[in-house]
Design a protein that fits this description.
Length: 184
């Protein structure tokens, strides 16, 4: 008589396959890391664009009209907000979908970076999109003579869609959280 283990049952074989599949699925989250790295590179592109816009603003400041200066500053704000949007996606996405970030070694680490859940990420993204859209509408109004009425109406309509979508999302998140806590 030999001490050989009992042959594996179909149930234990199924469990091994299931665990292997779950391991592959769980580790597939690392496939997102290159996307976030690519977004970091896009920040360098935005920085380049910001520096070019800033240099143009400075070089033309003495001859520019006040409205041109304001439009230039609004363009800088627009690029800056877009950069903020990219950072929010990079940190929140990495933290929520790839791996936890340990801010322990970084005393100046912004608190929000490790505390934005998916609902918070949606809110921050939509708020940034609304701000960027508002700047586009403001730039159009500052330069209203060069816009035809149809294009201006589209800009305003799209901006209103973003604002209303953000409000609906905020309300639905608030109602969802109050339901989770036993509220109405």
């Amino acid at each position: 008589m030999t001490d050989q283990p009992d042959p594996p049952t179909s149930s234990s074989a199924t469990k091994r396959v299931e665990r292997g599949f779950e391991t592959v699925l769980f580790n597939s989250r690392w496939l997102m890391a290159p996307f976030y790295f690519g977004l970091v590179i896009s920040l360098l592109v935005l920085l380049y664009k910001f520096v070019v816009l800033l240099a143009e603003l400075i070089l033309h400041a003495t001859l520019a009209k006040e409205s041109d200066i304001i439009l230039g500053v609004l363009s800088l704000i627009d690029v800056s907000l877009t950069g903020n949007l990219v950072l929010i996606v990079v940190f929140s996405g990495y933290e929520n979908f790839v791996s936890r970030i340990d801010p322990g070694d970084h005393p100046d680490w912004p608190e929000w970076m490790t505390k934005v859940d998916f609902a918070g990420l949606k809110q921050k993204l939509l708020a940034s999109i609304v701000a960027i859209s508002a700047i586009q509408v403001l730039k159009a109004f500052m330069n209203i003579d060069s816009y035809d009425q149809t294009k201006l109406a589209w800009l305003i309509g799209i901006h209103l869609v973003f604002v209303i979508s953000t409000l609906i999302m905020a309300l639905s998140d608030r109602w969802g959280h109050s339901d989770d806590k036993g509220g109405h």
